[in-house]
Amino acid sequence: MDRLIAPWIRWGAALAFQGFILRDAVWFTGWVCPAVHLIGLLLLPLTWSPLALMLAGGVTGIILDLLTANGGLWTSSGLLFGALLPMVNRLLAPREGYESESQPTATDQGLSWFITRGIMLIAMHELWRFGLEAGRWGLRWQTFPMALTSAASTTMIFVLIHKLFAGGGRMR
């Protein structure tokens, strides 16, 4: 039962933190815009169906759009993240596949897997979000490096959060 409830608690906590505390966080003149809510999506079970992951991403985006009045920016980015999540999971899966009890954590999968998966998904999310926020193609060269620094910093924040809350297990 704990394995069923824990992902929802992590997802809700990350979403609440982003929506209420980091709702308009922009640091270093736009070079770092943490998307902490994504850790809730990254830690959803590996065995979930692609539809469930996309729905989770969409619901996350809708809630953030309602909290921040961003008019669909977070919903679009969340849907993309949810759609890409199963593809990246398959791409990084071991040859034998994931075990049924396997969790998408650095403790279960290893730190390099956790960072690689995180940076891939977060970078795609941030490139999409920053591109939509820019509003036109001419600004993509300005937003591209900002999206990548934001993705790298968000991934570093996730590793720190995961290290703090990993619960006694050692990261491989």
Structure description:
- This protein has 172 residues and is mainly alpha-helical.
- The protein has one domain: Arp2/3 complex 21 kDa subunit ARPC3 (Orthogonal Bundle), CATH 1.10.1760.
- The protein has helices at residues 2-21, 38-42, 50-68, 73-92, 106-109, 111-134, 140-165.
- Helix 1 packs parallel to helix 3, helix 3 runs antiparallel to helix 4 and helix 6 (111-134) runs antiparallel to helix 7.
- The longest helix has 26 residues, at 140-165.
- It is globular and about 45 Å long.
- It starts with a helix and ends in a 7-residue tail after the last helix.
- The model has no long low-confidence stretch (mean pLDDT 82).
Concise structural overview:
By secondary structure, the chain is mostly helical.
Topology:
Elements: H1 2-21, H2 38-42, H3 50-68, H4 73-92, H5 106-109, H6 111-134, H7 140-165
The total of beta strands comes to 0
The gross shape turns out to be globular
CATH domain topology: Arp2/3 complex 21 kDa subunit ARPC3
Mean pLDDT figure: 82
In CATH, the architecture is: Orthogonal Bundle
Task: Give, in order, the helices and strands.
Answer: HHHHHHH
Number of folding domains? Answer: 1
Structural class, from helix and strand content?
mainly alpha
Portion of residues in beta strands equals under 5%
